[in-house]
Amino acid sequence: MELEDYRNLGDYDTFAFRTASATGASFCAGTLLGAIAATWQDVPVVERNQSLPALKRTAKVMGSYGATFAAIGGVYAATDCLAERLRGKKDLFNGVIGGLAAGAVIGLRAGSLPYGLGASAAFAAMSAIVDAGGHVVRTPVERSFLPYSSETENKV
Fold it and tell me: Domain ranges in the chain?
């Protein structure tokens, strides 16, 4: 099976599906990270007229992280798809363009141009590295790669 066969996703390769799935997955990852980050922050002082202040603060942090990650993932996927459609190619530069746009989201969120430029460069570089590696993080497990033969060699 060729590498392009792994990338041919059929009906799952639409603009809407890729953007929605990236946004949803990023929101879930951000919410989980927000829950972890909320445990490291100071617990708010308990006030008489406020119920469950720690839970409310945790939910606020989780929502903030989730929204930020969702925006980054959604913008990356949408820009990647848009670049692919406009250029008519599926290559490494679509992801680089998406990484630049995703980094701009971080710069807008932080309110800092240098921070946004650095994040854009980091996202673009990471996307280029992943795309140049062929989207593969492990070696294929096919019969030719197995350390043993699939057929019995000693047939009597």
Answer: 14-42+54-135
* Residue among 75, 76, 71 at smallest CA distance from 29: 71
151 φ, ψ to 5°? -105, 150
Q: Please give the Cα distance from 74 to 46 (Å, whole number).
A: 37
CB 48 within 8 A of CB 28: no
Residue with tokens 């989730």: 66
Do the Cβ atoms of 30 and 66 come closer than 8 Å? yes
pTM > 0.70: yes or no: yes
Nearest residue to 14 (alpha-carbon basis) of 77, 66, 57, 72 = 77
* Length reported for the chain: 156
Amino acid in position 50: Q
Q: Is 101:76 a contact under the CB 8 Å cutoff? A: yes
Quick one: pLDDT at residue 130?
86
Q: Say which amino acid occupies 124.
A: A
Q: Letter for the amino acid at 154?
A: N
Q: How far apart are CA 42 and CA 57, in angstroms?
A: 10
Tens digits of residue pLDDT in 18-34:
899 999 999 999 999 99
